[in-house]
Batch of 3 targets.
Target 1
Amino acid sequence: MAGAGAVGPRPRPLLLLGPTGSGRSTLLFRAALVGASVVSSARVLFLAPRPLERLPGGKAAGAGAIQRIHFLYPASFQELLQLVASLHQTLSSSSSMIVLDGLEEYLNNCSSPCTAAQLVALLLDTSNYFSQKRSHLSVGCQLIVSMKFPGEAGEEAEHFSAIEHYFPAHLWLHPDTGVDIGLDNQGLTKLIRAHLLQPGTKDQEWMVKFDAQGSMTISPLPCKNETENDTVSGNRPSVSEADATVPSSQS
């Protein structure tokens, strides 16, 4: 656009993938909280088929962060499509993050892979629009979308094939026992291994831990090569505790 100022770094669109019960919604909401806590001008748009059963908090929730998250619950694919197409006109302030939870539920009512791709393209266009609006700031608008693992055949696989290339960064969530890092006997109710894949960077992994009270903590794991080297030398790699959020997928 002629005369426009230089746009700050644009975070890579991130697709969060995991099976049912892998904590996708909790992780996504934590990302929204952190995104809303970075600066006072941050504004996060959280889209989902329905409200979360409870709002996870924790240390990631800065003072007033929840007030800077705008929740919208479009009930159908068509309603979501129309909403996204009009966001640049209806939102009074530019968003620093757009989060969409439960994409697979919307795609269940999607007529074709082409229409699914249209939705994601609109989300990207909207994210780019808000990045341009935030050109005076240091960072653009992040887009994070979550969906359940697609099936290997049928409409789910076709829809996934139509949209996955729009997301340079993929964060895969896998249930884990924690045996290999000594977390199998710590009273945790759920362990999820998060594996980040994005072009041009090393793969990264985190362990997402849920205790009996439902609290979530995230610990970085050594990269695969480091783990292999430590195994050869007979040393178990240590895991440092960190109250973190979805890993940054910024370019």
Target 2
Amino acid sequence: MEFQRARSAEQRLERRRQILSTAAAMLAEMPVAKLSLNELSRRTGLAKSNVLRYFESREAVLLEVLQAEMRDWAAELERTPPPAGGTPRERGDRLAETLAASLARRPVLCDLLAAQAAVLEHNISTEVAVRHKHAAWQNTQTLIELVRRLLPELGVEGASGLVETTVLTAMAAWPCSRPSEALRAAYDSDPALGALRMDFTDLVRRTAEVTVWGLLARQEAAAARPAS
């Protein structure tokens, strides 16, 4: 197929969408580390130099896919009804389970989060970094508001703490819960080592639960403190 330059703003926007959707589809097949600019170019039917007309680097493409995945995650949580009945801690436990399960259903998001600080936020310009961080801030604010709706007792500060802790836990837990073939064989061969095998969903859930309980306890202690 002969390459045709996108000349209008609408055509350029459509070309960007094509590149992003192709990258997202590739991530459903392979981890972030395996996605190359050469293969992305081949699958979009563009020369590598033409892909770089729209995105300055592979990392710039993946950062935009990351923020799109974050928006999709927030949209899923927005459809989640607030936990009904029970104490704040009981509802907090159910919220922790919801957060962990929803992340586990999004391996592409988790893989991108895990690569964000060490890989994706490098090899980009200041302009791309600013755009990325603005999008990240907006997505974080959306998640904070959603968490506050699901568990109002946390307040804004508590909801912010829970979102930050949950995302950071996912970033660290995802690669640790995806051991190499050699490690999987070691775990299978020795029951004692098998105890070291990490379950992503369980770790994120337990961490979120502990965070909720700690935040609620701190608020209760502050409320019980006599006014000076």
Target 3
Amino acid sequence: MADTPSSHQAETAFSESEKNLTAEVVEHGSKEQSARNDEKINAIRLACDTRDIDTLITLATSEGGFLQDDLRQIACSEQELSSKKTKLSRVIKRVLRNYPMLCYFQGFHDIVQVLLLVLGESQSTQAVAQLSLLRLRDYMLPSLAPAVKHLQLIPAIIASADADLSIRLSGTRPFFALSATLTLYAHDIQEYSDIARLFDFLLAWEPVVSIYLYAAIVLSRRKELLEIPLDEPEMLHFKLSKLPIPLDLETLISRAVQLFHDHPPESLPAGVWRKIPGCSVLKTSRDVSRKQSIKAAVELFYQQTHQLRREENKQKFIGFIWSHRRTIGSVAVAVFIGAMSIWIRKRGLDNSILSYADRFRAAFQGRLF
């Protein structure tokens, strides 16, 4: 039977309705997918911000992965960062497990990170161990007291090179250089190319040159330091504790070498070099061409530890004596009097002394009356 016009119209209307419904379904599905994608994008960004590696792995595995290239770049950098941190942690743990006497200090990881980037994980462990024992040993003792002694060289170098600047800085203690010298500048210099260049220099010279480098940095800022008002010591310390930006490394390296040649450690004033112990890395690693063994370095570490304990006990004893000086003084007088009394009796002088005392009393009373 032939289709009637009404049936054809009905079929056409149904087809249009089906198309519209399909379009609505597609549009609805597209909106749902878009909403899911937006939700996933937010989840990826949040995981990157919080460095949630497990969540990033889950999101990367799910349908669509990281969805967009810009998100992939962020996520991959986070995963790469996590991988580097894992390697860094492994190297540090290996060294500290092999040499448990070494004390970790804040900023040590900055040094290890430089070696890890240059040498890779397989070679950096041994390099870090050697660096720790042969160049950083003074900083990995149970106390930072040896590191503070290193800092005392800075004002001595400045005094030798620039008397006027030395006078201006005389009221500021050199703790401003602790962070940089402790970490071989790895904590304070952010550019990898700069710190890698600086490591080339520092590791080719004896350890004390790191101190000369900071003195060179201070001297390079002479003009701005002298312009700081005398009544602003906090500003002076702040300036001294921050490395200049930009950092002219080549000029500073040349200046440090010149300072070292012009004012060698032995010539520095106030006997600061003599105060550095003989077992310090500043003195045991002076000849960079001489090969040193790890075993010898470990023995030096224990020597330094014993010496450090003796110095600490000495300071505690002096502090105790000073804080109880009045009581100790009274006891000392009493002990002295008691000892003298015993000595007088043993010598048989007590009767003579009493006789003289009686005569003196009688004469004194006679004059009064």
